[in-house]
Sequence to fold (267 residues):
Amino acid sequence: RNLHFMPTLSALNVFICIYICSNHPPRPVPVPRNNNSSIISAVDMGISDEEWERLQKALDWPIPDEEITHLIQSTSPVHSTFSIVGLKESYKVGENISVIITARDHNKNLKRYGGDFFKAKLFSTELKASVYGEVVDHCNGTYSVALLLPWEGQAQVNVRLEHSSEVVQILKKYRESSFPRTHFNGYFEGSGPKNTRIREVVECNLKWGADGSWRKGDCCCEHKDIRTGTVWQCERPKNLSCDKLVRHSGGRLENPLNLLEQQLFSK
Fold:
């Protein structure tokens, strides 16, 4: 029996895992649409109220019980541990083993809240086989996993911290914000005085945000993609009208993370 703890962090796939918390969160509140006058409901999604509530619970993540101001307060993959409950010399195929994960910060202190994104699997390098378990968050810094034993022979347990609870909150914050991470250029061309051609390059971006807009006022031109229905906003050119847009291209990238957030994302 070999037990491994992988002290690695991944920046991908955090929101495709269904997350289950043993505590029952409050009844979910419908999510606002881009239109302030309406909300997204189970009817809009074409599902039942029970399925909608189940999805909302699955997406609910515990949050830190205090503001995180230093990296050492976040979950440490080095100091977090796990153990197999009631470990025996041998098991029968089809049985389950129970694993308890205990999260600690970089000062080796026990975490008091949940929200860490752990993955736990049973695997065999000889058979090239593996099976993942369902991680249950007890919302107090401990997690339990049930792992099925589906084959004969030896097996190893691997627990991996994909994201600390602090990083999960950062991802959630920017996912729900209207921060324009990628900026695009819009190219306008038209006729000028004395049969000259005028070309202007301005900044463009998708029209998005909690209130359904990227910028308000008369600052921008709006253009709708007839194939996808996506609405673009471009800064209004100084000398050309909005209908003179001919194309757009990728521009600069902007990192929304502050220094502490960058540290929390580091491996």
Remarks:
- The chain has two domains: 3-25+60-175, 182-259.
- The chain has four helices and 16 strands.
- Residues 182-259 form one domain.
